[in-house]
Amino acid sequence: MPEITHTLPILLIWAALGYLLGSIPFGMVITKILGLGNLRDIGSGNIGATNVLRTGSKPAAAATLVLDGGKGAVAVLIARAVAGEDAAQIAGFMAFLGHCYPVWLGFKGGKGVATFLGLILALAWPVGIACCLTWLVTAAISRISSLSALVAASSATFWMLILGYGSSFIMGIAITVLVFWRHRENIMRIRAGTEPKIGQKS
Fold first, then answer.
1. What is the CA 157 to chain-centroid distance, rounded?
2. Residues 197 and 144: beta-carbon distance below 8 Å
3. What is the mean pLDDT of each run of 10 residues along the chain (202 residues)?
4. Is pTM, for the whole model, over 0.85?
5. How far apart are CA 30 and CA 32, in angstroms?
């Protein structure tokens, strides 16, 4: 954990700001603007980039990936610049939580992988790069997005310790647990051998 330098009310403000930023459902906004249909009725019904790709629009999926990752990074960077490291970790974690459980969508959001990678890149860029490379290598081998996310999330705390970012360790564990929880149905399909591969319709 980083040193706590702010009072609880201040940290709660940053938590709220991070959550509200993270809860913006960019995937749904982009698909609606481009006339690609209701994302809830496509593929898995998820609001993330992997499901946006199932609309057949690679640019839409790429934009969703960048924006979902960007909101996690922006939450961390703004909080760090204004308030410091403790606020940055709170804001980043809450942006991740906001993506997974957005108030605007009845708390039914995405899996949080892009937001996780974005906030980790902003929080500790060497760890973020290591996690992104872990995702890419796993995806290249398995062609399964969910498995790549699980492996990347699992590696996060390892990279934090190896690369000297132990102050983020507890947050890393919390995010990893949530990533696995959000992917519990994917884990069942992976075990059954029925999980769709990248670009494949559910």
1. 15
2. yes
3. 75 96 94 88 82 87 94 96 93 96 91 93 95 94 92 94 91 94 93 80 52
4. yes
5. 5
